[in-house]
Amino acid sequence: MSPFAFLCAGERLEALPSGALHWPERRLLAVADLHLEKGSSYAVNALKLLPRHDTRQTLALLAGLMEALQPETVMCLGDSFHDRSAIERLPPEERASIERLTRRARFVWIAGNHDPAPPPGDWGHVAVEVADSPLVFRHEALFGSVEGEISGHYHPVAALTVQGRGIRRRCFLTDGRRVILPAFGAYAGGLNALDPAIAQLFPADYDALLVGKAAVRRLSWRQLRPDPSFAQMAWVREVR
User: Fold this and answer.
1) What is the reported pLDDT for 161?
2) pLDDT at site 52
3) Other CB atoms closer than 10 Å to residue 121's CB: what's the count?
4) What whole-number distance in Å separates Cα of residue 77 and Cα of residue 207?
């Protein structure tokens, strides 16, 4: 795991190849859009036949990060559960995994649009947003000028051409004043980093921190390309 260090509101942060954000000074690990039990949601509604192991994969990845970094706080930036009944659908093994993780660090569950109902109280704290000066953590970025905002919601992905081939990678987006995290969940999908819904949040220059299997690469938004066809790839996660 090779983190990429950068500054936001003067704070040194680390973008990890997993798609998580590390704030070493506060021993804080932030993850966005886990969408736990999305696979079972699709199965219940008979929309698609997807493997139902997404929660197990996502929790295993989070457990590995916690073991490596030993955070005091884990900040979940909303849409941690795919819908209001996702917790009820958790298999016993996955529920036990969450309970083990929440005993190892202080968990903060920020409410998202998919999961406005809070998880059980013994799993940690619940909030709409959390201010830890000079940073503030929330689910969806606010429109307009901000300083130190850390959010998720948009599941940003970057498209670019390398040696004549189009590739797609999950990415962080930052202009030094705010950061939008990629989705951490196994089936979360993504929105192109040049989409107007995202671009309007960055009135000047911004960079994409592309996550790969073992490293993070920084590119200007000018090096990216739009590709509407990627919007149809709604649940496939990029190879790490």
Assistant:
1) 81
2) 60
3) 8
4) 21
Take residue 134 and report the two structure tokens written for it. 């000079």
Map residue 64 onto helix, strand or coil.
Answer: helix
pLDDT along the chain (240 residues), means of 10: 93 98 98 83 53 83 97 96 81 94 97 78 93 97 94 95 82 98 86 95 95 93 77 36
Q: Which residues pair with 5 in a beta bridge?
A: 14
Whether the CB-CB separation of 110 and 81 falls below 8 Å is answered with no
- Does an H or E element contain 129, and which? strand 129-132
Query: What is the phi/psi pair of residue 207, to 5°?
Result: -120, 150
| DSSP at 48 | -
Collapsing DSSP to helix, strand or coil, 238 comes out as coil
pTM, 2 dp: 0.89
Residue 116: cis peptide before it, omega within 30 degrees of 0: no
Contact 216, 226 (CB under 8 A): no
Smallest Cα–Cα separation from 38: which of 115, 151, 98, 100?
Answer: 115
List the CATH code of the domain at 4-232: 3.60.21
Spell out the domain ranges in the chain: 4-232
